[in-house]
## 1
Amino acid sequence: MDKNFAARRRRDLLIAAVLAVLAALAPLFVKDVYVQNILILTLMYAALSQSWNILSGYCGQISLGHALYFGIGAYTTELLFTKFGVLPWFGMLSGGVIAAAIAMALGYPFFRLRGHYFVIATIVIAEIGLLLFQNWDWAGAALGITIPVRGDSWLKFQFMRSKLPYFYFALALCCLAWFVTWWLEDSKWGFWWRAVKDNPDAAESLGVVVFNSKMGAAAVSAFLVAVGGSFYAQYLAYIDPESVMGFQFSLLMALPAVLGGIGTLWGPVLGAAILIPMTELTRSYIGGSGRGVDLIVYGTLIVLISLALPQGLVSLFSRARAKNQVKGATR
Amino acid sequence: MGLLYGLIAVGLALIFGLMDVVNFAHGEFLMIAMYATFFLFAFFAIDPLLSAPLVAAALFIFGAVVYLLIVRFAMRAKANAGMVQIFSTFGLAIVMRGLAQFFFTPDYRSIPQSWLGGKTVSVAGIFLPEPQLIGALVSIAAFAGLYFFINRTDFGRALEATREDPGAVALVGIDKNRVFALGWGLGAALVGLAGAIMAVFFYVYPDVGASFALIAYVTVALGGFGSVFGAFAGGIVVGLVEAVTALVLPPSLKSVGIYAVYLLVVFIRPRGLFGSM
């Protein structure tokens, strides 16, 4: 068992490295700006979903309020940039730290709640954040902030001429989120989280520090999501409360992991790789009429996949593997 | 308003109490009820007050069908049961919103002239808008009816028994699926009633459900999941808090008060006001 686990982890790392290299080469073949945009969004959502998965998948604390951290990342970066001229890199880092601090501060009361009470509390707190930002004049209120052009360089993290730098940053973020998950999966934290998810009471009695491990998951998860928010703000060069802190963002972060396989290493990546291009394509090909056909297609797929494959698409692979093993054993 | 929130929330609480499933399409149920009321008025000039029972009946059927087509299967999931329920009903909500946009366009609609619209009535020197007053009365009547139904009829007892132990009721010949389908129907019918009344004084548009759904979840959680009485009481609390917040904060922030009270309550009582600890 242990040997298999170690081998699987090495194999995962290898697959990830190969995928990352292939992804890095993709812009050589994809020159179309529209397709590049889809690739960037796919990588970003994969990263976000992977980060969400740490708290909600591995640790089992289902959060539907992660848009709060996303928005905090975006707003910290842009407020520092537009009001004080602070470089986005610093804004990104401080956004992450602030989000992690808020996640831990909220953890104190929230982690006493269980099940639906916890889920609703996360939705509610994100909604409060949204309403406050919508009414906060200094931060642009409901109109949001337009990010001024200050150059075209890695230093300023603004690129006018090409989307490629954004692409590589999104790829790096995606790799980072994946690697952090991979690394934590086999750490003390990873085992604690799974124990907390399966049975918090039993975990507690076996000496798992349930509360602290939830706090750890919340902090890591919020930090990475906030970095994603900061990236998104720079990429779009415009933010407003609804578009970075709205409830739909919390869902968009959760969906790839849910469809791909919640609490798994590859679920979020696989889910995002299928879901995001699908969303973007349905939106641009049939959603242009503004009549909601894209919503109908999208919603139907969510219903069908969640009913047919409750463990996500990843379970298709493990099922196939289990079949092979049975075959191998009988041979 | 609080009583209407209560009525919306009672349907949600009934479904939850019955089978531990949160219907994330609850707001969309409300939305189609409002559209149904609107079209009955626009095409057949049926006053919302009269169409309310029709709408409730239609929603009853709709709720039962949703259970049989979707929720029944979601409840069979062994792994990630919570997520499957959340996302299958949420997917349904997205589909319903899309369909509403497709068929009814995203325009805002309202019922211009009804029996009740715009009139006020003076009760002991306080002027009350008539639609809201009737809404409150209907809510109380519906709640009393539901209470009677659950506690006094055979079906109500079957509902209660199935909730307690779905396995054991099968032994005495109660079809679990039928009871649950009826429960969903009943929950949806209550939302239908609320939607019919609200169509009189709210704009109807495809996303209207979303704004009320969160308040409904908060209401239910405030009262304590699984407690129908709690949901009704929660509704009254939410209505009062909203009214008070509207006096203190700008209108755009009025929901903040509701959310803050919810957080405060669950921090003190993590199972809600009337939830079993």
Note: Residues 57 and 264 of chain A are 7 Å apart (CA to CA).
## 2
Amino acid sequence: MLLTPQGASRSLAAVFTPIKSRGLVDEVCGRIEQAVETGLLTSGQRLPNETELAAALGVSAVTAREALSQLRTSGIIRTARGRSGGSFIADDVLPSRERALDQLRELTRLQISDLGLHYQTIAAACASVAARRSDAADMATLRSFILTAEADPLHWRLALSEFLLEVAAIARSARLARELIRLQADLGTLTLLPCADSGYRLTTAGLLEDVAAAVEAHQPAAAEAAVKALVAATTDWLLNEQSKLY
Amino acid sequence: MIKATASPDTSTVQAAADLDAAITGIEHRLAAWAAETGTALAALSTKVTGTAVDKLIRPAVEELVRTPGGYIAGAGFLANAGLLRPERSYIAWWQGEELEHVDALANFSPNSISRYVKSEWFRVPVDTGQAHVTGPYVDFLCTDEYVLTFTHPVFCRADGPVSGIVGMDVTVQRLERGALPTLRRIGDRATLVNADGRAIVSAAPDIAAGDLAAAEEGCSVFPVGRKFRIWSGAEAL
């Protein structure tokens, strides 16, 4: 098929879209928030000083100082003066249920279902390839991320995202893996909400087992279906919860 | 598809030897670097600090990743618990031409060691005291690329505990550029595989990197480095 100017205009439009830069300071703040989210940095822990932080992240001292100040304003860190002073991760800062609820309120139904659709597509592609390429060592790693439904919400949430990343790792596609990481970042703290529900944990525990079984048995179609059901469980839960908020 | 290559011809043998030399070169370089690092760490008169480790490791990484036409995409050192502080790790790892500092925030984490203990590329050399190669695998920690990670234990004293590991990342993409012409000289289905029989680079169009493959009956097998092999003919599973 010939590409007419009209036909090409949609893809060209993307080329000329302005590039939005989050800025270096936001980037540094994002990294720290992510580190707190994943439990790498914990409440009450001392943060490196400006100079150390700047050196570690490869930014200027000015950028590091601004980032620390921004984190202070948003309540993620607190600063103490004096001999045992410094910047510390604030108590009970992240991941917070309140923050997640705020995020859910801001989203439209359309945004949630569209994000869910994208997530399903990428996860399904990963699962299908993973089912062709899995070996015994892969399966042992994958199953290590299936927790019992009694696990606490934070662990459950972390294990759930690690499980899907492992499916991408078994598929051995760097591009799909990167896309999955981006999608998980877009979902942000939202997934904290369903994980606090024991009914959701019970349902997903079964679905995780289905995904693992299909990947292990080298059944691409079944793996794809199971992983789609897994993502749908999250999206449906969120859509349902959102309708209660109004 | 079965080829009678009981005694491969000279050009095939030479091609296999070329690829073996490239991988063995990386392994030898790593072993030498591990020895140098152990000696240098032992020679530090004061307590080992993060800054001292960075100062020691970074110039070596710079040379490795900036070698023109080289295979190394990133490299570095990871301290085992105890070298700097008990239960703490330290990562001095850089990647790319720009020497991007990898996972630097982890150095400020109180449970930094937990980030690495389960990784094959850290655990195996620490547990066995032997060199290891992990992958190919998607490396979420550093490159987010499909890579091979070569790691080697570092000892400050010959009879001492493992002080840490040095390692190098080789992306499958870079390796393919170098290895594919060589594999084609061996055969149109010649395949470089890891110890599990997983394809790293294959001349066969239907075998992708990451696929499990099998050696064709009667094909020649050539060792490449410590763990890999070339099958002169491979079939997709």
Note: The two ends of chain B are 15 Å apart (CA to CA).
## 3
Amino acid sequence: MLIINLIGLGLIVLIIWWFWVYKPQSTQVSDEQGDNSEITVVVKDGVYQPARISLPENKAFKIKFIRKDASPCAASVLFPDLEISADLPINAEFTLQLPALKKGEYAFHCQMKMYSGTVVVK
Amino acid sequence: MNKLTGDQLRNNTQDLIIEGAGCASCVGKIETALKNINGVESAEMNFALRTVSISGNVASEVLIKAVENIGYNAKSASDRSDDELIDEKEVADEKYYASLMKQMWVALALGMPLMIYSLFGGPMTVETPLERGVWLFVGVLCAAIMYFSGKHFYIGAWKSLLNHTANMDTLIALGTGTAWIYSMIVVLFPLALPEMARHVYFEATAMIIGLINLGLALEVKARGKTSEAIKRLIGLQAKTARVVRDKKEIDIAIEQVLLNDIVRVRPGEKVPVDGVVTQGNTSIDESMLTGEPMPVVKAEGDKIVAGTLNKSGSILFKATRVGKDTAIAQIINMVKRAQNSKPPIGRLADIISAYFVPVVMIISIVSALVWLNFGPDPVLAFAVVSATTVLIIACPCALGLATPMSVMVGVGKAAEAGVLIRNGEALQTASKVTAMILDKTGTITEGAPKVTDIIVADESYSEDFILTVAASIESGSEHPLAQAIVDSAIEQNIELENTTDFQAIAGHGVKAMLNGQQLLFGNQKLMLKHSIALNGYVNKAQALAYKAKTPMYLAIDNKLAAIIAVSDPIKSDSIAAIKRLQAIGIRVVMLTGDNRATANAVAKQVGITEVFAEVLPEDKSNKVADLQAQGEIVGMTGDGINDAPALALANVGFAIGTGTDVAIESADITLMRGSLHGLSDAIAVSKATLRNIKQNLFGAFIYNVAGIPFAAGILYPFFGLLLNPVVAGAAMAFSSLTVVSNANRLRLFKPQDH
């Protein structure tokens, strides 16, 4: 019983670490392209891929969303801090222009917050 | 240059719409520029349609860039219109619905018989080798169903797990997966478990997957209805336009209409793009856009907007805004943006959603441990049931949907009534407004004043001369009162003269030189400032003001020459609209730069007791701040550029849609028609939406938060009850449906009739 309890507690610690403590690596967007920096994010199977995008400060850039998920939650993407929202067509590209951003983390997510990602400006 | 992906490359013919090609010689230039690109095989331009057809293996971005480099604008003709996007969305939704229903039936085909068998007392235990064989077969069948009907949950859960996020798929996958794995352990290794724990839960797995798919399918259907308002707005746009090109009238797709094209609209047709009438006159029904039922007469020089309906005459007009720049396209955009934004009340649900799934996973583990340590026999079975039920019932999708669904319907409902709400925050704040400031000119009144009286003070001047001088000096001013004087002079065929040294003195009037004479034209303050003797004319001016007219003094060479009175009629429905606001307990205040007597006279007519008169433009925002300091939540309604700071400072700024673009830009809410009834409508919709959001949040919390303790088994020690995972699955599936359906109820809401 002790072992089962320890396994349970271990699982709880693992959940906390996996979902809240661990910061996954972000996909770096190169700034060589100046204001034309662009990254493609695929919306599929309940996630944005990549979900963590890192880019340099004060550079405008574009995110090209390709939605391959028919679920209605995936149909819109919101950047609450930037007051941006967009409808994503299914099985098609949709390019969203983001303004030059200051250092910080900017979350983006679907309407239900089930799909979520972060733009990290360094 | 951007690196192009394989998807961007098209190995076929594509069309571009060219803008700015005004002469036939442009054709060769554009074709040559395109043909010079590597990969372009041919480029042929249709000058009449301003389209160019290109064949070759080149991305449209490269082609557009090449056209732009030689000084023209180009866009892809294949860019889908809103209409097409909506159609595509509907087709995709229909397909998704059909696949969910199929998955649901397959899952229920196994789940239902098992469930009925269990309800009628069929043993769900593994005791004999025969039972083992049968349950093994059912288990394998259940795995096949999990693959066919529930694959999307498991893939989604796995992908989000790798991404360090958890979502509804995570809970469903964990819940159904736990039930299936436990049941398979029972089947494969029955002797490893105590006799009482040899119970299988295959029916739960199949039923949960089936019911959740059903819930999702019904949600897809219900969601389609919530965006009806936007569909209706998009449906207002015409699909084709009849343009005059090369002296011929041709019908072309709406996307191909270019700026400055001359467009023909015949009776019964929709106006395809925004423009200015160049020939003919007609009456236009703008009700679909503004909610105003009466058609509006339009003649040469009048603006018309896309989406409105031409009722009577055939007119020609010049296109001034096309494509995404038309007013209707911008309105659709604004409504879409607002529909996707969240009011502050939604943030609570957001915060909860972000932490919810991992917290539920932890609760599920804790619940299993509690049952294992302190539960009655068979502890293992109880632990599995409670852990599974907690995972299934707690899916937070209803919580996440509660706010956006209501906002979507509420904002759309407001748009139908001619009220454009910019964002969710404005929607929420509008429901709490306690004081409403109304600008006078153009808001309470028509904003189209007319000269009513000319009182000459110096007999050496004629009325015509006074009007000539006043109109000449005012022709440089943008003030609505100035426009009234200029219009009056034009009506009387008076020729205006050129003034020099024109100077507008904010809140006072204007100053200029004409034929060597110094002219001053404005209010009493301006006269006092320049020490002009007004003698008995102050009383005459007061008498005019008491009749709700605005008197203005004209001084020539520092001597009073005349008083010109201008009156701005009150809008026909202002009195009723103000009464509606007062009836719901809102303190209505009038704000104007006009003189006190005129302001009071207008206020009396419309039933307002609080008036801020003679307010300088820069002080308008101070009045907003004053009311805020008194604890009021202030709504400010205005139409002019000078109202912009006050509109921006107010808790909610309401712009009159017939006013200036600056005012509309500064406001949170725009009333598309001039009527103040839009204010009460906006507040009513806002209150109804907030009420709906609260109902949704309550419903979602009940399902999610209250459901968890029951699922964990809190009732067991008192009543011996433990929630069945199937019941939890049904509750979870229908929680979203409840929320979406309740939001749909808002579609039936009607702001009070007026």
Note: The longest helix of chain B spans residues 82-119.
